[in-house]
Amino acid sequence: MHWLLLFTFISCSSSRSMTDVNSVNIDSVINSSIEIETKKIDNELGLNSKVKAITNKKVPIAINLYSSLYHSLAFVSLVKQIEKENISIEAISSQGFGSLLAALYAKEKSASYVEWKLFNLLKQLKEKKIYSQHWYELLKDFISNEFKTMKVEQLKVRLLIPEYLNNNLVIHENKRVADVLNRALSIQKENNFYHQPTFYQSHFDKHSIENAFMISFLPEKVTFKNLSGYDWGVVTRYLGFVLNNTESINILKTSSTEALDELTSISDINSMYFGSIKEYVQSMKTQITKWQEENTESFNN
Fold this sequence. Notes:
Blueprint: E1 3-11, E2 16-25, E3 33-35, E4 59-65, H1 75-84, E5 87-94, H2 97-108, H3 111-125, H4 133-147, E6 158-160, E7 162-165, E8 168-171, H5 177-185, H6 201-205, E9 212-219, E10 221-223, H7 229-243, E11 250-254, H8 266-300
Parallel strand pairs: 4-5, 4-9, 5-6, 9-11
Antiparallel strand pairs: 1-2, 3-10, 7-8
Helix pairs in contact: 1-3, 1-8, 2-3, 2-5, 4-5
């Protein structure tokens, strides 16, 4: 059972406003906005403290993006900054809409490639209501054309997309990318990760990928423009998990009031989060340097 700080709201035909803050059960109340407590980026960066010796010029890391609908597009700017710092992303994971971004990056290991592929897709998605039948059909066609029969194991970067099978969390590595993505996007299905969000660090450890940075992109006041009903409940329950675990998942914030389900350009999203991203990447560099020094000393001893 997840709990959130939710705003009660006054509803009208086209807008929603926020009043008093209440602590409520997310399963029993329908609301439209969430407030994130302002908090400085966690110095621990959501990292597993165990670190293997890093000897390569490019330091290998893993990124676990906890999806936040269209605000997840800020991932493009984050990866660009990481690439500039000569840091190598060897594994990437996400859920929901974020899984598409993760898969595009895993295919070519290039932020520019992700941005290029999303350019026309986002123009088409802008006319579709998120999670509608037409939205799913458009994404399904894009995924089919982009990945064809490619399997997860054929990608340039290890891709970890979680789902539940018989109540067990699994990550497929020998399935077709298109099949994995279509299931990850279908949040209405009960085996979707959104219904039982959790941590899955053991799956990174299994592949000796211990340096996983867990992040999410969210505005200080989260709002939705079109999301409602069952989909609203699933998404807010998932966000409840993220907000209740900020000691592990770092939330990169923006003061923008852009709704999570309102699509805007990648450049606009990147501008919203640029300051938070720049600060976070510098913190990553500091932590990585510390790892290198510690492991160099351990190796020398």
